[in-house]
Structures are given as structure tokens and as C-alpha cells.
Amino acid sequence: MRKSAFFTSKNIAYLAVLLALVIVLQLVGTMIGNLGVTAPSLVLIPIVLGAVLLGPLAGGILGFAFGVVVVLAGVFGMDKFTLILFTDHPFLTVLLCLLKGTAAGVASGYIFKTLRYRNQNAAVVTASLAAPVVNTGLFILGALLMSDTLNANFVADGQTVLYFLIVVCAGLNFIFEFIINAVASPAIYTVVRVVKRSVRKDAEPRDEARPGVKKAEKATEK
């Protein structure tokens, strides 16, 4: 029963809105242009929001959708960096894109779930900051497996692949994503509080409509 509780009409509605944000933000980010080589991931904000509000499963679904958009943008030539990697390493490229986004969402969800009873504000901040760390960290590790393509197309003379990935490729993007998520975390926390209050208010009339249940609960507590 607990597993099926995720697929309520309210959760599906929240997830649909966040999924739309993920798709739009990633497409807009890709079209506007890149910082360095790859576009900064503004989509991490709705991914974290979904992970915090709905749990690790929602975070994973949203992160997976993020990866799908990145793959499609590369295949159709909107993201040249991904396209070049995909041309030489199609399987690894698809796996990396899907894995890093999914892992970022799942990690944020579990971090919030673990820390929320100690300090919800700190849990939201930690979950928000974990997303770019996981996303960028897995990107660097996965891209190292495609060093031949990076050397042939992107790495300048005198540079190493690791230097290119950490400093040139991921450096500005990671800093941008980390700062954006740090700034957005208080807003995410506020949204979480508002949504939870709304859910509690929606539940109150149901309890009042069943006074016998309340009496039974009080009797059980005694």
C-alpha cells in the first residue's frame, strides 16, 4: 500500500508540472548557449524540488527525464558536445546522460529524507547542493571513459583530459549550478512548507467528518 501511495492524483499533478519545467528549462538552456562547453543545468532546481516534495522516486523520474532531453538534444544536433560524444560512443553517452541526472535526483531525495527530522531547513539546503555535486561528478567520471573523443575534438595542446573536464568543461557550469542551487534552496524550503500546510488543511475536514475515528484514536493513546 505504501508504494501505491506515491501515485495519488495530487502527486501526479505535482510531478507533471515539475516534469514540464525540466523539459522547458533544459531546452531553453540548450538554445540560449553554453557556458564553456555544456549548458548549465537549471533543471536541477525542479529536480531537487520534486525529490524533496515527493521523495527519491520522483527525483529519479525527473532526473531521468532531464537525461532524455539531453540525449535528444544531442542526437538532433542542438547540443554539439553531446552529439560528438554520441557519434563515437552512443551507448556510453546515453548511459551517462541518463545516469547522472537520475542519480542526482535520487541522491537529493534520500538526503532530504534522512536529514529532515533533524533540521528540515538544513536538509533542503544539503539536498539542493548535493544535486550539482552528483551530476557534475558522474559527468566527469563518465566522460573520462570517452577520453579519445575528447582529445580529438576538445582538448587543447598541453592540456590533459582531466584538466579539460574539471576546469574548462565543468568548472564554470558547476560553479553556476552550485550557486543557483544554494540561492534557490530557501525558495525550495518555502515551497515545501507551503505545500505541506496545504496538504494538512485538506486533511483536516476529513478528520472532522469522522468524529468516531478521532475518539477511537484518543482512546488508543490513553
Describe the secondary structure blueprint for this structure.
Blueprint: H1 9-32, H2 44-54, H3 56-75, H4 80-88, H5 90-115, H6 120-144, H7 147-153, H8 161-169, H9 171-208, H10 211-221
Helix pairs in contact: 1-2, 1-3, 2-3, 2-5, 2-6, 2-9, 3-4, 3-5, 4-5, 5-6, 6-9
Give a count of the beta strands, DSSP E runs of length 2 or more. Answer: 0
- The helix-and-strand class reads mainly alpha
In DSSP terms (H or I, runs of 4 or more residues), the helix count works out at: 10
Which CATH top level class fits? Mainly Alpha
Largest sheet: none
Q: How far apart lie the N and C ends?
A: 28 Å
The tally of structural domains comes to: 1
CATH architecture identity: Orthogonal Bundle
Give the mean pLDDT: 83
Radius of gyration: 21 Å
SSE order, as H and E? HHHHHHHHHH
Give the CATH topology.
Answer: Arp2/3 complex 21 kDa subunit ARPC3
**% residues in beta strands:** under 5%
* Global morphology: elongated
Give the % helix.
Answer: over 70%
